[in-house]
From TrEMBL:
Its EC number is 5.3.1.5. Keywords: Carbohydrate metabolism, Cytoplasm, Isomerase, Magnesium, Metal-binding, Xylose metabolism. GO terms for biological process: D-xylose metabolic process. It is found in: Cytoplasm. The gene is xylA. GO terms for molecular function: magnesium ion binding; xylose isomerase activity. Belongs to the xylose isomerase family. InterPro entries: Xyl_isomerase-like_sf, Xylose_isom_bac, Xylose_isomerase. Its cofactor is Mg(2+). It is an enzyme of class 5 (isomerase). This is Xylose isomerase.
Amino acid sequence: MTSYFADISPVSYAPTDAPDADGLSFRHYDPSEVVGGKSMQDHLRFAVCYWHNFVGDGSDPFGGQTFDRPWFPADTMDLAKRKADDAFEMFRILGVPFWCFHDHDIRPEGASLRESHDRLNEMADYVGEKMENGGPKLLWGTANMFSNPRYMSGAATNPNPDVFAYCASTVKSCMDVTHRLGGENYVLWGGREGYETLLNTDLNREQQQAGRFLQMVVDYKHKIGFKGAILIEPKPQEPMKHQYDYDVATVYGFLKRFGLEDEVQVNVEQGHAILAGHSFEHELAMARTLGLFGSIDMNRNDYQSGWDTDQFPNNAPEAALAYYEVLKAGGFTKGGTNFDAKLRRQSLDPIDLIASHVGGMDVCARGFKAAHAMLADGALEGPRDARYASWNSADHLTTGKTLEDVAAFAEKHNLDPQPTSGRQEILENIVNRYV
């Protein structure tokens, strides 16, 4: 069998001004480069997703398949194994340390639930051998509980309790495989955990179902001794009109309601942050502030489109601000940088799959190094600390202080505070100078 990527050599670091027409060398990402006492590979922890690269067929909401891959339609175990062969060849070419998958990505659906589990376990054995023979480690596994028609009214939030039970079996099986393959996280994305209309939706019942399901997942994690993090990936809408994991703050409220705030973290995606009306760095800052930071999906949306386009990152200043928040959170521990991104439907060739990741990894590396330098120099923290410096001597927040006490202070000193500049433009200039 000839590899789909047969004529493509492993990508190397080549920081040169010479033309690179195909974009198949790293200009900024040197995995062995040490920054702040740690290699870039260990800082960024790049992961390649299985689904968009090896399941995606180029379709979009307005048109069908444009890609032709030798493993399509991957509806047999032989084709699934052919797909895995080419996937791990791509991982080798890129030199990434991690990969990610949904159960549905790596095995064809069986004629029964049991057969689907058996196929997943067989494929886990198959890819496990590749991992043991020099392949990348598993950043996280997850279950696809949104594509099949059985999930059209939700997964754990479905009005049919049989679907809830089916989901429990699916997640248990996928968690077992993730654990067996040494996965460092397990992700739950509630693609259809939400509603299309309130006319037929019981919000409280559905959220109770989702909360209890997540409690079961956490309990099972501890039962099997899985040491990785359980991650929720927030998204506001699409495919549902409203999803219960709208954004980081919403997820935090949900976790607090069910006593899970110390058990679950978030996997933040740039594209989902944009759909929620936020910036990527806002969502990361919220995750850090609320103690939920876990991992990231580094893919952007087209700012002129109103849907989730899942494009590779190409904006170094945006990447710098994102990694600034990652560094302030202490950097990645179990998490990493996953490219939950897909080719444009006109990008048909094997080389496009490689070049897209090379470009994304370079943008991330360039942004990360700028973020690290800004933090080390105090370029943003210095002005930020100065802006709040007067609070260092104020005692308005002291335990026992009352509204009357603080009001009396203002009246005693006849306060007349004057506005001071926030210097936003100066700070924006500073960021761009580092990038």
